[in-house]
Amino acid sequence: MKKILKYTLFDLLRSRWNYIYFGFYLIFTTSLLMLSGDVSTVIISLMNVILILCPLIATIFGVMYAYNSREFTVLLLAQPIRRSAIFWGQYFGLALSLSLCLLLGIGLPFLYYGLSSSGAAWEFLTLLGNGLLLTFIFSGLAFLIALRNDNKIRGFGLAILTWLFFAVVYDGIVLLLLLFFRDYPLENAALGLSILNPIDLSRILILLKLDISALMGYTGAVFQKFFGTLWGTIVTLLSLGLWVLIPVLSIRMIAKRKDF
């Protein structure tokens, strides 16, 4: 698996799309820092960009790579190599390449503009950590969709719908549920529904760490009461960890019986 991961990682790092992805974050972050000069303000500005763009790019790039490398995968399957090692190596190589682009594209400008002396290092690490977790989560979901669907058009469509559901549609459904059942105590239900969406979960964590949960009104107070505690932080990290683990284990199960 390490050899396949290494090959996939270096192969993807030479891709022009990874350079474009890295260049976008580098230019965008540098521009914000030059215009604002306040590290904390730039972190807030980057929040929505990372929460939307990281899952989108991971989804599209993941499904593209899975389909484009199909012939190479078939060649590897003909060798005496475990199936799980092949697919896990490709998945982790893909996720790590996108994570490196995000890490360097955002990290280098912040280091240059004095992140260590700004007092916002923890907030920056929270933002970056959530971006990396979302990259791994949606890369896994995209890879899983490509494995389950041999038809490229259908696979691309399902991948985009998956991102659209978690990024946009899910919030609308939750708001409708809260509106219809507004006469009932829904604090615990709101917490549970947030855990079921990794993008929402990451957004809440970042808002709480930036100490701007007041912008969320009463809901923010509920989230602060739970997610602001040590137990809430542990539950959140375990939830995001499960969001990473479930696609990985599903890839292994499908890889065992996938007929190419």
User: C-alpha Rg, in Å?
Assistant: 20 Å
Strand content: under 5%
Overall morphology: globular
Give the N-to-C terminal Cα separation: 20 Å
Treating each run of at least 4 consecutive H or I residues as one helix, how many helices? Answer: 11
Provide mean pLDDT, rounded.
83
Main pleated sheet = none
Q: Roughly how much helix do the residues carry, as a percent range?
A: over 70%
- Describe the oligomeric state of these chains in a short phrase: single chain
Describe the protein's topology.
Blueprint (H helix, E strand, L loop, with lengths): L1 H12 L2 H21 L2 H30 L1 H8 L5 H30 L8 H28 L3 H29 L6 H9 L2 H12 L7 H11 L2 H28 L3
Helix pairs in contact: 1-5, 2-3, 2-5, 3-5, 3-6, 3-7, 3-9, 5-6, 5-11, 6-7, 6-9, 6-11, 9-11
Describe, in short, the structure shown:
By secondary structure, this protein is an all-alpha fold. The chain has eleven helices and no strands. Helices cover about 85% and strands about 0% of the residues.
Account of the 3D structure:
This protein has one domain. It is 84% helix and 0% strand. The chain is built from eleven helices and no strands. The longest helix has 30 residues, at 39-68. The mean pLDDT is 83.
